[in-house]
Amino acid sequence: MDKQPTAFATESIKQNNEENTKKKEFVNCKHLEFEWSLNKIIDHTKYSKEKELGPPIILSNENKTSTRHERVQGDEFPPIRILSSQPITFANKEETIEWSVLINCTHGFVEVGIYLPELDTTYFLKGFKNEAQIEKGRESIKTLEFGEKISTGDKITISLEQQQQQQQQNNNNTIKMNIFKNDKQLGIPFNDIPSTSKIYPMIGLNDNGDQISIV
What we know:
- The strands form 2 sheets. Strands 1, 3, 4, 6, 11, 12, 13 and 15 form an 8-stranded mixed beta sheet that branches. A 7-stranded antiparallel beta sheet has the order 2-5-14-7-8-9-10, with no helix packed on it.
- The protein is globular and about 50 Å long.
- By secondary structure, it is mainly beta.
- Helices cover 9% and strands 45% of the residues.
- The longest helix is centred in the N-terminal third of the chain and has 19 residues, at 7-25.
- It has one helix spanning 7-25, and strands at 29-31, 36-42, 57-60, 65-68, 80-84, 96-105, 111-116, 121-126, 131-136, 140-145, 155-164, 173-181, 184-194, 200-205, 211-214.
């Protein structure tokens, strides 16, 4: 007569199956290595054209740390955004790409997300409240209730996963963004990001001393 597995053995099998499932989920997950670029700053403040005042962002730590530099008193809003030096490249249609940043210092108004230059569109998590936004140019802004506010010491991870749109004749992919805070999943604020544009990791720094590092 066959012996039934004990409760301990059953739990062990369950744990092994869960671990194997997790491994399968992350087989095609790539951790993105990149750095910030001073040549890719988006500055819409009133001092944006006054180059003699110096750069609004200072890079350090081999260009992995960005620090907001207040050029003159009142040089604050809107947040100045800086992009990665190179766009994201997916190796295949199944690959998921993720990266993490550490909020070394925030006065409340930092941003973490991506920028699509061909569409002049930004998808990002806002720092001072539980909101995410889609910003198209400077005129169209869509705000979603999402996530949690960002504080100093938080680690934010962004994961981009491709989705095949079988019903479309051109068979283009869209991309969904999954966001984690301190390794806790906050959810998916955007699930229809077009893949037809280049995509750059982006952060926004508002106040003097705001600082974010790639980790």
